[in-house]
Design goal:
There is one protein chain. This protein has about 900 residues and is an alpha/beta fold. Among the domains are: about 170 residues, Valyl/Leucyl/Isoleucyl-tRNA synthetase, editing domain (Isoleucyl-tRNA Synthetase, domain 2, Alpha-Beta Complex); about 180 residues, Isoleucyl-tRNA Synthetase, Domain 1 (Orthogonal Bundle), CATH 1.10.730.10; about 80 residues, hypothetical protein PF0899 fold, CATH 3.30.2320; about 60 residues. The strands form 11 sheets. The protein has a 4-stranded antiparallel β-sheet with strand order 6-5-14-16. Helix 20 runs antiparallel to helix 21. The two termini are about 55 Å apart. About 40% of the residues are buried.
Length: about 900
């Protein structure tokens, strides 16, 4: 062993991570071992480590390090996502701070700025993961805009287009006015918000009659195309074929009939705004209504908004409501709660918008993905409760809007060559597109006649092929790495992207390989604070992840995160848990220091108590090894940690080491010492996935080892037969020792004083562990007797009776003094209670419950006095 007895977590973390990297312990190449593969959920390239990342990647690292110890060829592929919306927003903000605008520069110039931003900030989060101890194969790091990844995405688009699964359509989409792009339905978060319901009157043309409609969005009145009534509604049957006038706007619009209108809801009259509501769009198509799109891309009003042109929609709402009221069109307002769609990324309120966009048909793609999870169980969700959520999403899947009005991302490989919006071809390069365009048009076109679609693909469209593209499985599906590492084994992610990412990867996997992309999906919970609030920067309740590592060590934070986390359940994070994790590191280190402090003798015999302790701990370790196997198999990572924690803290440190510990300034026998080291090494192996740094440090302190013998590439302890009976027997012996210790404590019997112990063996119990009872209880002599021993302190374990003779065991005068002191206290306490109860005013006026409490106090005090007096008489 080395002589260093002080553990410095900061030094150890840097030293051992550099060591692991130097010897390529995390790198994987194809060989004849069983592969174990995880692909990282790629974080945003410009992101920083937060608590969710810490939890997610700690779990992945635990699984990865254990797989390595099991002898598998462990491959953990790291990478980052280009995050179109988030990154573009940051670049736009940076340009703005420099007095520039995206609109003033070319696409090529903008992309240069975006790449500069990515190169400056990208990869920070991956370096931060190294601080946590993540054992990724960094040689395999991927970025979704790498050339090979880019080609894989474009090839996927072209393939799906040629299969008829991708199409371009003019549809109602979700428009994010802050990011100025469309979003898929899944990227819209619906939140209940308190608003107003505005009742507005519409004059009927050439009549004094007025119709009343109710709307939550009065600003959309500028886009009204019709008023709709139910043909069966007798209240309005006389208005069939007539027209109404849009308030303030003055536009004449038809009054149409459709059974879509609910006669019982609201006023029975519905304003129809086809450009700004999906249901209104269907009515508009059905009745050939005009379409008035009133918004600019930033949700300010355009020229249809009359004098409000250029003003923000919500400012217009306030001003327009005042105008409606002034001009007599506003009848009343009511408080109204409704669900408002907001952008998952920017939090902006979504505007429904009619637009030409690219869509992917998903219904047929979803079928094998649904079957894999819910029927064949080729893909398993942990916990299973998320299967219902998965089923609901997949049963109700809608075509995926995959185009985004951004420049940062994978540019859609569609090339336009004519005036008609359908004059386009889809191809990998402009040269290939030219040939296709010439064939399709029959014209002698030139490259300059082609213009590539300005839009990019939804970021999720690149990450849905991630398990395949990281191994080049799209471009080159027969390559040996893809054939070896795919399908991957486990995926660890959050339930919030079960549909965004997980379901889509399953769909892509079956579409392109006919195989699942992974076998098991471990869904972590959200990290919340101890008040159950979701951790976020905006709430100010999210601690600095690297600051935690600095304060509590990486091992401490990893343990702290996992101590309170179970699959699918939210983690209630408290920094005290990290302190507990740090305390556990110290416990392990101090156990090592204790063993190392012992002098070893080859001359002395092994005590029977030590030999029995070794037999017991070997068995209990094997029992816990099976428990761990079960926990890992069910992805109960927190339970696996707790099993390891209790085994080492309670069984190894509190019992085993205390049993084998030599007497003061006495040596330990060689045989026991070697067994203790071997068992300690087994402990380090099962702890290593959770606490890689302190375990590796101790592993090398125990002995000078060749790099090939490093803990991180050693072998998981083997399962062997074990003795269940000795575990049961030890539990009984431990109860006896606890009984002795309780009496010692209660009667102030110093542990250094040897005492005698007698037992009536009513329930025959093995005497094999008597040597342990003698040592741990500091018992001079243990006798088996047939009758109670007079003048003894007694306790029971099950039906067995134990006696510790008082004579010589305790300091009688000291015990008498202690009992007299207690007697005086309880007599005084009894007097004060009796005084209160003798007060008729108190007894008659105080609530019955209060009086009863005082009576109980009196009875308790009398019982205590009686017990103390009996103890005094026995001395």
């Amino acid at each position: 062993m080395s002589s260093n007895l002080n553990y410095n977590s900061k030094e150890a973390e840097q030293k051992w991570y550099d060591y692991w990297m130097k010897y390529d312990f995390f790198h994987s190449e194809v060989d004849d071992r069983e592969p174990y593969t995880i692909v990282i959920p790629p974080p945003n390239v410009t992101g920083i480590l937060h608590m969710g990342h810490m939890l997610n990647n700690t779990i992945q690292d635990v699984l990865m390090r254990r797989a390595r110890l099991l002898g598998k060829n462990a491959c953990w592929v790291p990478g980052t996502d280009h995050a179109s919306i988030a990154t573009e927003a940051k670049v736009v903000a940076k340009l703005k701070s420099e007095g520039k605008s995206k609109n003033d520069i070319s696409r090529e110039e903008f992309l240069e700025h975006a790449w500069d931003w990515t190169n400056d900030y990208g990869g920070r989060i991956l370096n931060q993961l190294k601080k946590l101890g993540a054992s990724c194969d960094w040689d395999r790091t991927k970025f979704t805009l790498d050339d090979d990844m880019y080609e894989s995405v474009i090839q996927t688009f072209i393939d799906l287009y040629n299969k008829g699964l991708i199409y371009r359509g003019f549809r109602m989409v979700n428009w994010d006015p802050e990011a100025k792009t469309t979003l898929s339905d899944e990227e819209v978060i619906y939140e209940e918000k308190q608003g107003q319901l505005y009742y507005v009157s519409y004059p009927v043309e050439n009549s004094d009659e007025k119709l009343t409609i109710a709307t939550t969005r009065p600003e959309t009145i500028f886009g009204d195309s019709a008023i709709c009534i139910n043909p069966n509604d007798e209240r309005f049957s006389h208005l069939k074929g007539k027209k109404a006038i849009v308030p303030v706007v003055g536009r004449s619009i038809p009054i149409i009939e459709d059974e879509y209108v609910d006669m019982e809801f609201g006023t029975g009259c519905l304003k129809v705004t086809p450009a700004h509501d999906e249901n209104d769009k269907m009515l508009g198509d059905k009745h050939n209504l005009e379409v008035f799109d009133i918004f600019n891309d930033d949700a300010t009003l355009n020229s249809f908004g009359l004098q409000y042109e250029g003003q923000d929609r919500f400012e217009v709402r306030k001003a327009f409501v005042k105008q409606l009221k002034t001009e007599g069109f506003l009848i009343k307002t009511e408080n109204y709660t409704n669900k408002v769609g907001t952008s998952e990324r920017t939090k902006a309120v979504i505007e429904p918008k009619l637009s030409d966009q690219w869509f992917l048909k998903t219904k047929d793609l979803a079928e094998p993905a649904l079957k894999a999870v819910l029927e064949t169980e080729e893909v398993n969700l942990f916990p299973k409760k998320f299967e219902n959520t998965y089923r609901h999403w997949m049963d109700n899947i809608r075509d995926w809007n995959i185009s985004r009005q951004l420049w940062w991302g994978h540019q859609i490989p569609a090339f336009y060559y004519g005036d008609d919006k359908n004059d386009f071809v889809v191809a990998k390069t402009k040269e290939e597109a030219l040939k296709l365009a010439q064939e399709k048009s029959g014209k002698d076109l030139k490259l300059t006649d082609l213009k590539q679609d300005e839009d990019v693909l939804d970021t999720w469209f690149s990450s849905w092929i991630w398990p395949m593209s990281v191994f080049d499985g799209i471009r080159n599906p027969d390559n040996k790495e893809f054939q070896y590492y795919y399908p991957t084994n486990d995926l660890v992610t959050g339930p919030d992207i079960l549909f965004f990412w997980v379901a889509r990867m399953i769909m892509a996997g079956y579409e392109y390989t006919g195989k699942r992309p992974f076998e098991n999906v471990y869904l972590t919970g959200l990290v919340r604070d101890k008040n159950r609030q979701k951790m976020s920067k905006s709430l100010g309740n999210s601690p600095d992840a690297l600051g935690l590592i600095d304060e509590f060590s990486a091992d401490g934070v990893r343990v702290g995160l996992l101590l309170s986390n179970a699959a699918g359940n939210d983690l209630l994070f408290d920094e005290a848990l990290c302190q507990q994790g740090k305390g556990f590191s110290n416990k392990i280190w101090n156990a090592f220091k204790l063993i190392k402090s012992w002098e070893i003798s080859e001359e002395i015999e092994q005590p029977e108590s030590s030999q029995k302790a070794i037999d017991w701990y070997q068995s209990v370790f094997q029992q816990k090894l099976r428990e761990l196997e079960d926990h890992y198999g069910k992805y109960r990572i927190s339970d696996a940690l707790m099993t390891s924690y209790k085994l080492v803290w309670d069984d190894f440190c509190s019992w085993f080491l205390e049993i084998i510990k030599p007497g003061y300034e006495q040596p330990i026998d060689q045989k026991t010492y070697e067994a203790a080291i071997a068992l300690f090494e087994d402990n380090l192996k099962i702890l290593h996935p959770f606490m890689p740094f302190v375990t590796e440090e101790i592993w090398h302190q125990i002995a000078d080892r060749h790099p090939s013998e490093a803990l991180t590439v050693s072998f998981w302890p083997k399962m062997t037969e074990f003795d269940e009976q000795i575990i049961k027997d030890f539990s009984f012996a431990a109860d006896v020792i606890s009984g002795i210790r309780t009496i010692r404590k209660d009667k102030n019997i110093a542990f250094k004083n040897e005492i005698n112990l007698a037992v009536i063996d009513n329930e025959p119990f093995t005497k094999d562990l008597d040597s342990i009872i003698l040592k741990m209880g500091n018992i001079n002599h243990l006798d088996y007797v047939n009758a109670p021993v007079d003048g003894s302190l007694t306790f029971r374990v099950k039906s067995n009776e134990y006696f510790i003779p008082v004579q010589g065991a305790i300091d009688v005068e000291a015990e008498k003094a202690k009992l007299h002191e207690e007697l005086t206290y309880y007599q005084g306490f009894l007097k004060s209670v009796e005084k209160k109860l003798s007060n008729e005013k108190f007894v008659n006026n105080a609530p019955e419950q209060v009086v009863n409490i005082e009576k109980q106090k009196k009875a308790d005090a009398e019982a205590q006095i009686e017990t103390i007096q009996a103890s005094l008489e026995s001395l």
